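Q: What changes when adenosine-5'-diphosphate is included in the input?
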Amino acid sequence: MFADVSFPISSFQVFTYKIPKKLIKNVSVGSTINAPLGNRMVSGIIVSCYIERKFSGKIKEITSIEEGKPILDDSLWRLINWLSTYYDTPIGLAAKAVLPSQLSTNYEPKKQSFAKISSLNDEKKIKGEKQLKVYKFLKSQNSPVPFSELKRFSLNPSTICKSLEDKKLIDIIKKPVIPNIYDTSFESTPKTISLTEDQKSAISTICSSLDKNRFDPFLLHGVTGSGKTEVFIEAAKHALSNNKSVVVLLPEISTTPQIAGRFRSVFGDTVAVWHSKLSKSSRGWIWKKICEGEFKIIVGARSAIFTPLKNIGLIIVDEEQENAYKQTSSSPRYHAKEVSLMRGKINNSTVILSSATPSIESFFNYKSKKFKYLELPKRYGKVKLPHVHLVDMIAENKEADNYNTIFSKLMLEKISDRIKKNQQVILLHNRRGFAPILRCEDCGEISKCRHCQLSLTFHKIDNMLKCHFCNFIKPPANKCSVCSSFNARLSGTGTQKIEDELKKIFPNVTIDRLDLDAAPTANKLFNTLNRFSNNEISILIGTQMIAKGLDFANATLVGIINADTGLFLPDFRSGEKVFQLIYQAAGRAGRGALPGEVVVQTYNPENEIIKDAVNYDLVGYYEKCLKERSDLNYPPYSWLVRMEIRGKNKNEVARSIEILNRNIPSLPNGIEKLGPSPCYREKLKDLYRMQIVLKSNKKYDTTGSIVHSIFKKAIKNTKFRKTGIGSKLIVDVNPTSLL
Ligand code: ADP
Ligand code: ZN
Ligand code: ZN
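A: The predicted holo structure follows.
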């Protein structure tokens, strides 16, 4: 028997091996095996098995079966194949996304040692003060004592215990330490829920879909605070009662504790949490238990869609419009929403894409009847959507005769008012650091990252300039590198500056900040959210991290410091993103019994996107946006494929993209090509970037198969992957951004 094996390398080539007799019974298509590749031992996945050898060269043997990988059922194998084809990724790499090499069903939790007094009572054998102390202490205890507790008698309790054990005076017991897998979910007490008519109707539609056991995609469009999570919970109950399992995807780790907590309060220990910030031991433990079928509900980040959960009946993608669902840094460059729809199709599951601000694509898919529509148009409990005040910052600056005003009069008034009433404030500013630009006043030179050619952000807390793309750090120079002037000036505003200024204005108020710098770890993040939820923080400042999904009843004011951030980025999605952020952030206010208010500051008060967002005119904006997308032939009216060449040498990058360009066959009707041109962010992490974007109108190319065949042909003809030159090709199918 022979097998073709794909490895997690960037080559599409499969390698043929002989299956040794002893393994024939145990391997099949989809098995993870170890085999020699070059002079290394690499684990790969079998993509086909056959009896007749295909060629006469020397063939090596498969060495062993990789231990600890679950047997792939047919549905996951089909998913891997789809990932590979759709995102143009070698199957070995696609398989690695589903079966990460670090995870194993053989995971054993670390063991902790305990000491316990034995039945032998022969104290004469004890030597030395320390042994005696430990022995006496153990004697006074009824249950085994962990070694760590014996540290007060000796720095090295294990040596002492070992010699006591050798003398048979004590027994040493090793117990596995089960990781606390719920340390990233909030405690939540079950609520009495009396479902609203809208909720009931959505739930009953979902339940009857679940009973049919077929692929059924829904868009659940519910305004912020309408109780979408309660709908998820009821739907999950129904799925479980049909003996099906459930995946709930969340885009931001910041919303995980609350939502996971709400699921846990209803479903207890059958809920597992899954995200990148889990400790290694928790990940290992959870994955093993998922493989063993112990969990029925997974609440987690995008990679949770790959967990080998059996019998999936329901997949929920919360805040489905979020770009965080797209994997951008490595292959396969998948979108968890697309994967959810495909996994749902393969497993005959109900798929719910949920949001208060659906992506334009999903909105379009509902309009064109590809998705069924469920609506929760009202907030739960007769709570009104908060009133929004739009503040024109140009007028505000003029009046104050200060062009660096951060807070408008109205914003400060409203904040003071909430502080007086003991209510809480959320302030959104989508830019971290202290100031995004350090500029020489004499020659205008801006401090840039030498690896990315982008402006460095000043961080006051550590007095450093930082690159937000590659994490390069340097202290601010004391004179200009171009003209030697000492006249440098910070401009622009980041969250740290807002925190600083606000603390000056409200010195006696507890103010905290949540952004990537303030919450580098999950614990820090959850701790701050917890304190906010317990009313220990009055004003929480943060980036988009705090704009979505959170539910704090006492937060009655949301302020958006600069609604224009991102408005003018040259990307077809920038308007949509700004709209969603404002609309969502506003939705964090007044979710409980107390009414909410929102203050939105802008330098573009006449901008349609901002006006529509503050008027909650979602349909109005979406219709306009769709018209624009249709005029410009952007998604959802077209398929996009972005082919990027990156490399250290600028000329070589230009040459390579030209070769690729020449290999693109003449384009049929409905397909446009943009480029080759430098990317908007031309150099990132020392690599120059150029791209070609193919846009294929869905009228001519309904399934995208035409554009797929064109780009695949171009790549193949370029033999790019084989030339081994210093540049790299990146293919991004359905990119979320063209920057
Ligand atoms: P969304 O996810 O749509 O923004 P949530 O599910 O967080 O909204 O609901 C907002 C708040 O209203 C939550 O505190 C939730 O528990 C509460 N809520 C929603 N529906 C009900 C209901 N039927 N009965 C009781 N409380 C509800
Ligand atoms: Zn200068
Ligand atoms: Zn950089």
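Observations recorded in class: The first strand starts at residue 2 and ends at 6.
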